[in-house]
Amino acid sequence: MHPFPIDAYAYQSRLRAMHPGEKMLLAFSTILICLLAGSPMAALLALSSMAALTIGIAGVPLGTWWYFLRVPAGFVLIGVITVAVGPRVSCDAGACPPSLSS
Length: 102
Description:
Blueprint: H1 5-12, H2 20-37, H3 40-57, H4 62-85
Helix pairs in contact: 2-3
């Protein structure tokens, strides 16, 4: 058994011959596009295209992809729930911080 299972999948990937710098450029450019776009649709498009690339082209099985994505997806879900049900800031009686005043 390999001590780091994700490395075993990396060595079995169909993209193993691709230079690591090219893969890093793809990842960083995708992150930059998502940050500059500032749109949830851009993020969903990036997620779906990267999933298609990983599952379809790299040949990683869907179950394996989801196995390694569970923990980051859990952090995102917890963050979304926290923001959704977190305390609301009210600007009553002039007590509003300058960053929230309209």
